[in-house]
Amino acid sequence: MADAKYPWKLVWITGASGAICGEIARRLAAAGVTVAATARPSDRLDKLGRFGEHQSLPGGRA
Hints:
Elements: E1 10-14, H1 19-30, E2 34-38, H2 42-49
Parallel strand pairs: 1-2
């Protein structure tokens, strides 16, 4: 459940494997916001997933 500071139920963060966007994703998740994070390369995105409950879809090329 999101608090008054973050009234959103879900956010989508692109570029989440980077330092700034990764930290934003962690802080929002810690505040109770559901975070959908996407990024390349996927190995760095996997590190972000270690901070909480997560589901992951395999990456691929379009």
